[in-house]
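Section 3.1: Structural characterization of target chains.
Under the original work plan, the team committed to producing a structural model for every single-chain target entering the pipeline before any wet-lab resources were allocated. The record below documents one such target. The sequence was received from the expression subgroup and is listed exactly as submitted; it comprises 298 residues.
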Amino acid sequence: MAGYVQDIGQFAAFRWSAEDRPPFKWGDVAPQDARAFLGEFARAGASAATMRRKLAAMRTFYRFMLREGMVRTNPFAGLHGPRGANRLPRVLSQEETARLLQTPVLRLQAMERECAEAGSAPVPAIARYRCLRDAAVFEFLYSTGCRVGEAVPLCWRDVDLAAGKTIVTGKGSKQRLCMIGRQAAAALESAREAARAAFGESAAGAGSPLFLSDSGARLGAREIERRMKRWLAEAGLPPAVTPHKLRHSFATHLLDAGADLRSVQEMLGHASLSTTQIYTHVSVGRLKEEYFRAHPRA
């Protein structure tokens, strides 16, 4: 949402001078203004994805103003954004994924050893929770294939650890069933016990958020990203990896192991099978690497 607001502000700065003051005359914008706006970014070397987002932001903004009777036409309606290259998603290998998932727990174990060897007080409850929570977040994202935005709103009542399942709300407010593996369920249980010790019994109640911040509020997506950067550095993994890459890795590892493409589509919540098929390309790429590495006549 913030990005869309920024895009609209950029167009206003492009179309009107610094002397002009809002409210702007949005109805005076012509299709040539819209084309010139996108052309500016093309000349500046903006990526195809950036230009498509700006076009989408302005098209949606004008669609809203049309609905409200504020303008009569949508000057962005007939424009098409540049096509981007079909880049394969960067995924973590199974070994890299395991390293990331284990790092918060290994850090906690190291902290506990240091306290025991020094004969000092045990690891503070909030520090203990922070490590176990981060491990649970990563395990949950990798186990379910959820987007971060789908995991953040969950409460304890939304997950059934005994049955290993949860229902999340994805894009378009569509709900889908996600599986929770044994290791993810165990990580969640450990985080729940640590939350109880750090914040009290209510932190583990049915209505409490699945993941809490250090202050006891609901953990946000941005904080998950920041925490991941910290653990990536400790695990010696590329800093450009994001929580969404765990979703990419989830899909690729399933397909590598022979999972049915339609089943993976359902697990990811993709409306179109073509969206899921990009992960088969990743798997084929790995097969090619193995072929050219190992075949004597490759």
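The first strand starts at residue 159 and ends at 160.
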